[in-house]
Design a protein that fits this description.
The chain is mainly β and about 210 residues long. It is built from 1 helix and 17 strands. Strands 5, 6, 7, 10 and 11 form a 5-stranded antiparallel β-sheet that branches. It has a 4-stranded antiparallel β-sheet with strand order 1-2-3-4, with no helix packed on it. The protein has a 4-stranded antiparallel β-sheet with strand order 12-13-14-15, with no helix packed on it.
């Protein structure tokens, strides 16, 4: 994913997957910067610096707020362990936001992690996205198996978040949503896969 920053640089965000002991796969976001219109790039920076983890970032999810802060929503899937070995990936995602106030040189976790509204949501929260609203709040959304997107608001530039809620006007199958704001009018444009009632029937039948 490419993002033009306020200082004119181009940020390049990408995921890197690599195998590690106990047959696990590490997947995490890295970032590079270009100051010469993509002719050359800086050395990659490991944004999260977490131990081996499975961290999901969809395309075009990195945003820069009006105050310059970079915000990256990340879906974290934990590994399940048995006898000290990793035996499988927990598909129930939780959401962490990684923040940078120095143009991407250093990153830290948000003060709060968002956990699913209910333990009955088998997917947890996956493939999160975020957008800055005209009033300065951040709206974040999450893919779920609940028949609709779920959402949360931040009023402090991504550090703390409201209790998550079901976003009824975004009914959808288990698939992601993308949203952008018009740069002048601040109108929001959203694209998502609307829920087909037949999809639930097919899921129940195992097809």
């Amino acid at each position: 994913s490419l993002l033009r920053l306020q200082d004119g640089r181009i940020a390049l965000l990408h995921l890197r997957k690599s195998a590690f002991e106990d047959e696990g796969v590490d997947c995490r976001p890295w970032i590079r910067f270009s100051s010469d219109e993509a002719q050359t790039w800086s050395q990659p920076i490991d944004i999260t610096k977490l131990p081996p983890s499975y961290l999901v970032v969809n395309n075009d999810r990195l945003i820069q707020l009006k105050n310059g802060r970079l915000v990256l929503p990340v879906g974290l899937h934990r590994y399940q362990n048995a006898d000290g070995k990793k035996v499988g990936l927990d598909m129930r995602g939780i959401v962490i936001f990684f923040l940078s106030d120095d143009g991407g040189a250093t990153w830290r976790e948000s003060k709060e992690i968002i956990f699913p509204l209910s333990h009955k949501i088998t997917t947890g929260y996956q493939e999160p996205g975020a957008i800055e609203l005209a009033d300065g709040r951040i709206f974040a959304w999450f893919r779920t198996s609940d028949g609709a997107q779920h959402g949360s608001y931040s009023e402090d530039f991504g550090d703390t978040w409201s209790h998550p809620f079901r976003v009824h006007h975004f009914p959808s199958m288990h698939s992601p949503l993308s949203m952008k704001a018009h740069p002048e009018t601040h109108e929001l444009f959203a694209v998502w896969a609307d829920l087909d009632p037949r999809w639930n029937v097919k899921q129940q039948e195992g097809s």
